[in-house]
Design goal:
This protein is an alpha/beta fold and about 500 residues long. It is about 30% helix and about 25% strand. It has 3 domains: about 230 residues, DD-peptidase/beta-lactamase superfamily (Beta-lactamase); about 120 residues, D-Ala-D-Ala carboxypeptidase C, peptidase S13 (D-tyrosyl-trna(Tyr) Deacylase, Chain: A); about 90 residues, no CATH class. Strand 12 and strand 13 form a beta hairpin.
């Protein structure tokens, strides 16, 4: 009996030790089942938006079938910022066609005697945004120098008449009334004109003076007689810091440079928009004629002169639409977007106006099966905070463009994830997502948007729009958008 009692006690003791292990070995029921469907996986990410619920609109759909795989407030209109460029560029491509070329022509009138043109010069603008160094190996004077060479080949070294600028293809409203006037000197809010030069921007560079106490050296590029610097910044010792303020009061051609710069090597430059594009264009052209040894004794005037048989063509400068559109969509260059938008109206209505371009856009939306009333846009670039569209309607637009005759060409102008030539160059760069997204970013104060196409690992392609408003910061917005798109690519 004692042995039996001892064995029973040991068995009981062993049971006490084994019970927790046996309990632990039993599979525990999860308090929340792991997400299984694509919608559930996306919702795990999508519900963590960095803004309040009434400031976010998200929609993601299978590109082919249209099946919505995730949505959050898809019918809630939000400010779309530069995603607007998708809409305006698609309308322009629809009406102008992929082979369209911008034209700027240079003319002369009068007889030539002993190198003297007894007459005038004429430039007729067509809205080309590329009269700059962008497509001319960074030589902003290249176009004008070619024109000057055309005059010299005709034996002209002196012009007794005027340089006439015809910018009448567009109206005279250089900036949209929705744009905040306190940003008129910012490069991204440059004025729009049928005659534009160097993105209608100058670069103000500041350097050290010869000695401490000397004025800072200020240069303006391109150097014309229009924009003048007022250098009030002073040079301090080598250990000093760069403390510079550059400003151009609205309506003024003077740039004021204040502050201090150190007496050591440094680099400081800032782009500033100008106010009067034809005036800027004419001053730059006149300076290049002078550099080529051609004297213009008359005035530079703006006048809607149309060349007739009395005028002889000196040169025609052309630019292709698709590379131009790529600057707008890949780099989000608002000046380019608006030049294209007004050119659309100029070609189809006879005058480049925002009203005309918007009317054509509405007709375009209807032609591809969309409800124009759902696309509340006011300009072509997205600088207007009044451009409001829902994520659901952006996805419908993206699906419509997928089957548009020019859809593939249009998609080629969008930014690509991880591609250095675009606004997605530093986003979605990992091995899974690089090159898998074609899209358009958008940013305004407190607004961050992203829309486009994403190819998942499964081979499926999705159309998506992620619109965040409500004062969101860029870093948090980008993190949320990228996480959602990365999850779509991995799990879709």
């Amino acid at each position: 009996m004692p042995n039996r009692t001892r064995i029973s006690a040991l068995v009981a003791l062993l049971a006490l030790f084994l019970a927790p292990a046996a309990q632990a070995s039993k599979p525990r029921k999860s308090s929340a089942a792991a997400p299984q469907t694509l919608q559930q996986v996306l919702d795990q990410v999508g519900r963590r938006a960095p803004v309040r619920s009434n400031a976010v609109s998200v929609a993601i759909a299978d590109l082919e079938s249209g099946e919505v795989v995730y949505a959050r407030n898809p019918d809630q209109a939000e400010t779309i910022a530069s995603v607007t460029k998708m809409l305006s560029s698609a309308a322009a491509l629809h009406y102008l066609g992929p082979t369209y070329k911008f034209h700027t022509t240079f003319w002369r009138r009068g007889e030539v005697h002993d190198g003297n043109l007894i007459g005038s010069l004429l430039v007729v603008g067509g809205g080309d945004p590329n009269i700059s160094g962008r497509f001319y190996e960074n030589d902003s004077f290249a176009v004008f120098d070619r024109w000057a060479e055309g005059l010299k080949q005709a034996g002209i070294v002196r012009v007794s008449g005027d340089l006439i600028l015809n910018a009448s293809a567009f109206d005279g409203i250089y900036r949209h009334p929705d744009w905040p006037p306190d940003r008129d000197t910012r490069w991204y809010q440059a004025p729009i004109s049928a005659l534009s030069y160097n993105d209608n921007v100058v670069i103000v560079s500041v350097g050290r003076g010869a000695l401490p106490g000397a004025p800072a050296i200020v240069s303006i590029d391109p150097d014309t007689d229009i924009v003048q610097s007022v250098a009030r910044a002073r040079t301090v010792g080598k250990t000093g810091k760069v403390r510079v303020a550059v400003a151009r009061p609205g309506g003024s051609d003077q740039v004021f440079v204040d502050g201090t710069v150190p007496a050591r090597y440094f680099r400081y430059s800032v782009p500033l928009a100008i106010d009067d594009p034809p005036k800027f264009f004419g001053a730059a052209l006149k300076s290049r004629l002078r550099a080529a040894g051609i004297e213009l004794t008359g005035s530079v005037i703006e006048k809607a002169v149309k060349p007739d048989n009395a005028w002889a063509l000196i040169a025609t400068t052309e630019s292709d639409l698709i590379p131009t559109m790529s600057v707008s969509n890949k780099h989000s260059q608002s000046f380019y977007a608006e030049q294209i938008f007004k050119t659309l109206a100029a070609e189809k209505t006879g005058r480049g106006t925002w009203e005309g371009a918007l009317a054509l856009s509405r007709q375009f939306f209807a032609s591809i099966g969309l409800d124009p009333a759902r696309y509340d846009i006011h300009d072509g670039s997205g600088l207007s905070a009044s451009n409001r569209v829902t994520a659901g309607d952006m996805v419908k637009f993206l699906r419509a463009m997928n089957v548009h005759p020019q859809g593939a060409v249009w998609r080629s102008t969008l930014a690509v994830s991880g591609d250095p030539e675009g606004t997605l160059r530093s986003r979605l760069m990992d091995s899974v997502t690089r090159g898998q997204v074609q899209g358009k970013t958008g940013t305004l104060n407190g607004v961050s948007t992203l829309a486009g196409y994403a190819q998942a690992g499964s081979g499926k392609t999705y159309a998506f729009a992620i619109l965040l408003n409500g004062g969101v910061g860029d870093s948090r917005a980008h993190a949320y958008q990228d996480h959602l798109v990365r999850t779509l690519i991995q799990k879709g």
